[in-house]
Write a structure and sequence with these properties.
Layout: H1 2-71, H2 76-85, H3 91-96, H4 98-111, E1 117-122, E2 127-130, E3 133-134, H5 139-147, H6 149-156, E4 162-168, E5 177-186, E6 192-201, H7 202-210, E7 218-223, E8 229-231, H8 242-253, E9 258-260, E10 264-270, E11 277-283, H9 284-316, H10 318-333, H11 349-389, H12 392-410, H13 415-430, E12 435-437, H14 438-453, E13 460-465, E14 474-476, H15 480-489, E15 499-507, E16 512-519, H16 526-542, H17 558-568, E17 574-579, E18 584-591
Parallel strand pairs: 13-15
Antiparallel strand pairs: 1-2, 1-6, 2-3, 4-5, 5-6, 7-8, 7-11, 9-10, 10-11, 12-14, 15-16, 16-18, 17-18
């Protein structure tokens, strides 16, 4: 007792020292981690913003180059000069210029695949060419120009070009938004004579800005020179809270280009080329989560260090706890096949007693496992036999009725054929075994269809398409024919002929194949279809219940079939039952077995 008390006291002092050391290390590591994390986030935010700003500039620079090239095109100069000199331009002259203008404007579309339209127009003259196509004078066009303040300011200013932020297309009503670059077309006398507008779809800009590897709490926002949001185009597309955006806008107006708070982290870069501000903003909640993860990592590091120190301490106490550790080791190494502890000690009879008791327990446990396995195996075989027994007599009764009816209508010459087909079917049903080859199941089904052809001559057709590779696949007996018979008993009674039955199989993969049975009957009633789907969804949990459970739906043995399929394939299959526009379809997905 004294030694035990001393050991516990010594362990307590060492654990207290280890706790103090690990707390200091964890605090220092946590502070460094948080500082480095914030620096890295701000640096990463700046790099992302800078890259995006460069990409936006690179997107518009080719547009300006293309507009400048068009303004210097020698073929356009005389045409535009003539158009601008005429006070009233005839439709013939406008259309005559259409081909040359179309070639020049469409050259931009050819070399810049992200451009949607190139437009040439003059607000003071009645001509407007949309990608080279002449558009008749339209009051809507001039109304749009008069309402566009940016356009009016651009006409009066000496600036190289005008960038219109994402906006609804001025020239196409109810169309998708676009972003436009407008450049003045100057004649030799340097008088503004026309405007060239190049449009790119808003989707292209949106794809560029949303395709970055951002988390769900980060977003790129474009601001104009007045710090108003121009991208995203719709306010509901903002993933960041509006209050955060307003706070960031106020900081940017004060010249604060980057900042971090518990609500947000952002970085902004102005573009000398476009005059827009590229803003990368991130929800502070995400950053705070990373900080929390960093703190958690620091705590885990402290726990690891503390664990190492305690392990060293435990090594000192190993000699005192060696017998108990040996016992734990042997218990952990025991398996179901070998539960013998094999722990022997000359000085400790308790271990020998425990070993003997464990051996006896192992023998009883093994006997119980064997009995349980044997019981479940017998139950599975009995259930399978009971399920199959429900369907075997079913063929004989219905087929004899069919032969009798056919003999009365068609005479005795049909009886031998039908009897031979019935004999084939009965041989198939009464042969021992619960499984069959797919080709034999198809032959059995074909015999049944031929029997049904006699009393229903000219009323139905059938088609069977089975790949030869699947002919020797093994399936449970009496799967296909009862489903086909169900069509005649129920589905075809409520619809007029001609009736049709389709049976098709195909290979899905190296390990699976499908069997599809379709008819053009009345389909399943809604309640019956729900009952079938409920049965299949719950079957794995109800298959071990009473064998006397109902296995039919309104006289249909589909539950019986599905239960036997699930049982044979051990639930490694899939069944889909659905109503079609005309008829129904039952699809089986089976593993390939030979």
């Amino acid at each position: 007792m004294y030694k035990s008390h001393f050991k516990n006291k010594l362990f307590f002092y060492f654990a207290l020292i280890a706790l103090i050391i690990t707390s200091i290390i964890s605090f220092i590591f946590c502070k460094l981690s948080v500082d480095n994390l914030l620096k890295a986030q701000l640096k990463n935010s700046y790099q992302i913003t800078n890259n995006i700003s460069i990409q936006i500039d690179n997107m518009f620079k080719p547009l300006e180059i293309a507009a400048t090239t068009l303004s210097n095109a020698p073929q356009l100069a005389p045409l535009i000069y003539e158009l601008n000199q005429e006070e009233s331009i005839s439709s013939y002259d406008l259309l005559k210029s259409e081909n040359i203008i179309m070639q020049n404007l469409n050259s931009v579309l050819f070399y810049l695949n992200y451009v949607s339209d190139v437009i040439l127009y003059n607000s003071e003259k009645p001509y407007f060419y949309y990608s080279g196509l002449f558009i008749e004078k339209n009051p809507y066009f001039f109304k749009q120009l008069n309402n566009l303040s940016d356009y009016q300011n651009f006409i009066s200013q000496d600036v190289p070009f005008l960038l219109l932020p994402p906006h609804n297309n001025l020239w196409r009503g109810h169309s998708a938004p676009v972003t436009s670059l407008i450049k003045k077309y100057k004649s030799v006398s340097h008088n503004e004579t026309a405007l060239i507008e190049i449009q790119i779809p808003y989707n292209y800009l949106d794809k560029l800005l949303s395709s970055q590897s951002f988390n769900e709490n980060a977003q790129v926002v474009l601001l104009d020179q007045n710090f108003q949001v121009i991208y995203p185009f719709k306010q509901e597309e903002l993933k960041i809270d509006l209050d955060i955006v307003d706070a960031v806008q106020q900081n940017i107006s004060k010249g604060i280009t980057s900042d971090y708070t518990y609500k947000h982290l952002y970085s902004v870069i102005p573009s000398d080329y476009t005059g827009w501000y590229t803003l990368f903003i991130q929800d502070g909640y995400f950053i705070q989560k990373q900080i929390n993860y960093s703190i958690l990592n620091s705590l885990l590091l402290g726990i690891v260090i503390l664990g190492i120190i305690l392990c060293v301490l435990l090594l000192i106490l190993t000699r005192l706890t060696q017998p108990l550790n040996q016992l734990i080791l042997h218990i952990n190494s025991a398996t179901v096949h070998d539960l013998n502890l094999r722990v022997f000690s000359k000085n400790m009879n308790e271990f020998n007693m425990l070993n003997d008791t464990f051996d006896k327990l192992y023998i009883r446990l093994k006997d119980s496992i064997d009995q349980l396995y044997e019981t479940e195996l017998r139950e599975a075989h009995a259930q399978f036999a009971a399920l199959q027994a429900q369907i075997n007599p079913h063929f004989l009764y219905n087929t004899l009725n069919a032969i009798s009816a056919a003999s009365e209508v068609y005479g005795a010459h049909t009886t031998p054929i039908m009897c031979q087909q019935l004999a084939n079917m009965m041989r198939y049903v009464t042969e021992p075994g619960s499984t069959t080859l797919l080709k034999d199941g198809i032959a059995h089904t074909r015999d049944y269809l031929e029997l049904m052809r006699v009393p229903n001559e000219g009323l139905f057709t059938y088609s069977i398409n089975i790949p030869i590779e699947l002919s020797f696949t093994i399936i449970p007996k009496l799967i296909i024919q009862p489903i086909v018979e169900n069509s005649f008993k129920h589905a075809f009674k409520e619809v007029l002929p001609p009736w049709e039955v389709l049976i098709k199989a195909c290979i899905i993969s190296e390990t699976q194949w499908s069997l599809i049975i379709t008819d053009n009957g009345s389909g399943f009633p809604h309640h019956a279809l729900e009952e079938i789907n409920t049965f299949m969804a719950n079957y794995p949990s109800i298959k071990t219940t009473s064998l006397e459970m109902p296995l039919t739906i309104n006289g249909m043995g589909l539950k019986n079939i599905f239960a036997r399929v699930f049982m044979y394939f051990d639930n490694q299959c899939d069944i889909k039952v659905e109503n079609l526009d005309c008829g129904c379809s039952i699809t089986f997905i089976f593993p390939i077995t030979y």
